[in-house]
Amino acid sequence: MHKIKVAVLSDEELLGTTLVAFLNKQTEVEVVRIFKDGESALSGIEKQPVDVLLFDIHLPGISGIEVVGRLKERCPAMACLALTSKDDDGTIFEALHAGASGYLLRNAGNTAIIEGIKDVYKGGFPMSSMVTRKVINRLFVAPAPGLKSEKLSQRENEILLQLSKGYRYKEIAAHFFISVETVRTHIRNIYEKLQVNSRAEAIRKVKDSMTASIHNT
Fold it and tell me: Do domains 4-138 and 154-215 have the same CATH topology?
């Protein structure tokens, strides 16, 4: 029977638990590599590919999210499963956008983690229940009312709203499941259509336009 070859990328906190020993006791899973930082994972996994990378977000040096983004370009068939204590929206969607195929919180328990590894290997998308709720809310809940200009497309208005909330380009990209370069293109188009040169000018101009429209009604 084929064992799922797993690499673990995490800090001392996770490695100090019984998780690795637990995984190696499973008949379907084998932990073949353990990495404590992103740089070693990049070089090691490229030399010895694995089926599943179980990774943490915060690491010494480059983050787990950046590691996944790079590795998915080199090893597209490898499944990447986040295992972290970070549960904020920005981190979750940055990880998913980078190429993570699942997102589990550390308090999920060893049984849930092993089931997550088997699920992601088979093409599933395991997530902790709270993460699932956040993803559903982001994808299906109607956006809150906010800035809107008739000069802009629907997506441009959506991005302008995100800009007004102070989100960074990476966070906006993760929110809409698009690349950072696509975000930059939309923002250039926004500036050109509104004839402005900055985020602040764009927000102020649309706010002024909306206020004038209300007063004229």
Answer: no
State the amino acid at position 76 in one-letter form. P
pLDDT tens, position by position, 97-149: 888 999 999 888 889 999 999 999 999 999 998 888 887 776 655 445 567 88
Alpha-carbon distances, residue 57 vs 24, 54, 129 (angstroms): 23, 10, 19
Class of domain 4-138: alpha beta
Q: Where in the chain are the domains? A: 4-138, 154-215
SS3 174: helix
Shortest CA distance to 24 belongs to which of 121, 112, 125, 110? 110
Bridge partners of 7, per DSSP, are: 33, 53
What is the β-pairing status of strands 52-55 and 103-105?
unpaired
Query: CATH class for domain 154-215?
Result: mainly alpha
